[in-house]
Specification:
CATH architecture: Alpha-Beta Barrel
Shape: globular
CATH topology: TIM Barrel
CATH superfamily: Aldolase class I
Number of helices: 13
Radius of gyration: 19 Å
Distance between the termini: 38 Å
Strand order of the largest sheet: 3-4-7-8-9-10-12-13
Length: 356
């Protein structure tokens, strides 16, 4: 029903406007007494074979919601009812910022993809941490792992970026289970320069130094772009080993416009931004496989990019991912997507339980 009736109706309106409408509706519906528990019963696949222990955390299932959908940790309670094993909030920055001018989110319907140039629009790391603490106090029996995706403010120069990431890290430390360091969004000018070996090593080393001052350190993962060369991916492998971070999230959105089914004039009219969804699926899998093989499976990888089905998720897992995330697939497939993927994984991959 979602794809036949609801999605065509939603797609008649501006993408960002519909996002806000849909999330507001979700909050209203699940505020009705009994609806949250009912939703969990409908959408959650509770099977111990789905559980995975990765970088010291036990995930009830391997299907997560990627950063970007709930930038401000305002929907954690509601989204936790939809069957995801984990979710990432953000990207958050130390100070609130409005992001890029609208329109900044576009659908590539023929490609089952999106173009976004949101620009880290968010209300700041501190308020997000407060909302996460409130959720933790009231989550009841919901088992969901929360990741904090952190970035720098647009007006922070790269030579001062470490301070921004540390500020987010400190604000969120007691409110999240792991961190994702975002240096790969194409929508903040100069951000991807931080993926170069020198600046990236300095940034991750600074975060690890701060991490080790805590009684119990939190896993830190690096989110990388799909547009890196093999040489740059080799550098990533070296940096992970040198800094001792927990793993990699592969991948963010791509700046490539290759092989799109959407007519080129329409794509050009949408303007710059990162492409997500099916257009990045193959490259994401290539990056996962390369990192896994070249590192000898030395660190866990969360696979992201073009996951709409159990087959898509299995492709990432077989390439070397320990967990998977989706965002665009959630938009195109609807609220039951995590349930369908988890059921599909159980049907064709009965022995899923793993420790990484």
């Amino acid at each position: 029903m979602y794809k036949r009736l609801i999605l065509p109706l939603l797609f008649r309106f501006d993408a960002e406007t519909i996002h806000h409408f849909a999330t507001t509706t979700l909050k209203l519906v699940l505020a009705v007494p009994g609806m949250s528990a009912l939703c969990r019963r409908v959408y959650t696949v509770d099977d111990p074979r789905l559980a995975r222990t990765v970088f010291g955390l036990t995930f009830p299932n391997p299907v997560g919601l990627a950063a970007g959908f709930d930038k401000n940790a305002e929907l954690v309670s509601e989204l936790s009812d939809l069957g995801f094993g984990f979710m990432e909030i953000g990207t958050v920055t130390p100070r609130p910022q409005p992001g890029n001018p609208r329109p900044r989110l576009f659908r590539l319907k023929a490609d089952q993809g999106l173009i976004n140039r949101m620009g880290f629009n968010n209300k700041g790391a501190g308020p997000a941490a407060g909302r996460l603490r409130h959720f933790a106090q009231n989550k009841g029996n919901r088992r969901v792992i929360i990741g904090g995706n952190i970035g720098k403010n647009k007006d922070t120069a790269n030579d001062r970026a470490i301070a921004d990431y540390l500020a987010c890290f400190r604000d969120l430390f007691d409110a999240v289970d792991y961190f994702a360091v975002n240096v790969s969004s194409p929508n903040t000018p100069g951000l991807r320069d931080l993926q170069e070996r020198g600046p990236l090593t300095q940034l991750l080393s600074a975060l690890q130094t701060e991490n080790k001052t805590r009684p119990v350190a939190k896993p830190i993962l690096l989110k990388i772009a799909p547009d890196l060369t093999d040489g740059q991916l080799d550098d990533i492998i070296t940096i992970v080993a040198e800094t001792g971070i927990a793993g990699v999230i592969a991948t963010n959105t791509t700046i490539s416009r290759a092989d799109l089914a959407t007519p080129a004039p329409a794509v050009e009219q949408m303007g710059p931004g990162g492409v997500s969804g099916k257009p990045v699926k193959n490259r994401s899998t290539e990056v996962i496989r390369y990192l896994h093989q070249q590192s000898g499976g030395a660190f866990p990888i969360i696979g992201v990019g073009g996951i709409n089905s159990a087959d898509d998720a299995r492709e990432k897992l077989e390439a070397g991912a320990s967990l998977v995330q989706l965002y665009t697939g959630f938009i195109y497939e609807g609220p039951a997507v995590a349930k369908r993927i988890n059921r599909g994984l159980l049907r064709k991959s009965p022995a899923l339980t793993a420790t990484v």
